[in-house]
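Sorry, any thoughts here?
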Amino acid sequence: MIQPIKWKGDHILILDQTKLPEHEKYLICRDVESVIDAINRLAVRGAPALGVIAAMAVALEAGNIKTDSFREFYQKFTHTCSRIFKTRPTAVNIDWALERLKYIVLKNRSKGIHKLKKLLVQEADSIYREDIATNKLIGQQGKEIIPDGASVLTYCNAGSLATAGYGTALGVIRAAAESGKKVFVVACETRPLLQGARLTAWELKKDRIPFTLITDSTAGYYMKRKGAGLVIVGADRIALNGDTANKIGSYMMAVLAKMHGIPFYVAAPLSTIDQNIKSGADIPIEERSAREITHIGKQRIAPEGVTVWNPAFDVVPARYITGIITQKGIIRPPFKRNIQKALAGC
């Protein structure tokens, strides 16, 4: 299994996704500054992976705090949490993981700073291990919806690279293939950073799962000419009504799937559901550098001085979603009621 994140006690290893597919190189992160830089550069990305790396970074930085005062420790600890939280505002798993760490600190505040540091490391490790286990459960829950011999269209990268390991949308595909089903994947290139072409294709090739790569603008024509059994994507944040934020272009894929009568599924852990947001209208959408549109690598492809609008995500309205594949099962419409039922069982 691909391991994009490795915890080494006094440092974190991050598989640098900006170097893929040409080079498999791990970054060595010994402090929060290097982790923040990795997140901002998209060396590590994907909502579940960001939750894991956020927890590890905070635990790592907490180990460097030199004080016996809980008040001073907590002040520095929450400052680190705040800095990590601001890196990727759409990915709710960051906040989810940080809230778990805050709970551990406050619950055990009387046990001393040394003990708190150990507990933070243990909790970060638990979040890491839980994510892999959760992704495998998502795969088992979702593999049943993939018919033997089906073609599955996916968007962006929701595989091992977007998680601690195994993946969400690609985890479902991987589980179906492991069960003996013949699966053919249609991977969209995914502008602006070509995460489908660079990352999803890299993972599928490593797993020897047959696939073809298409441009984003080919998806509708592919559906019309060749069809697809279903579409599966990941998610960075899901509202309580089922509206789902995912990589920019997911909304387009959902509309096209609806037009062609193709089921559209979202695969994500329950931690990606934001219980404080009622609808997609309230999901914060990150906007990124114009350079991601005007350049490929160091090569400029657009005229100097052009105006660029570069939202990193869009929101798929719940009415276009057939089901949300979670570790507890597939949530189907009506989403408002059934999401609450799924969360109540956690």
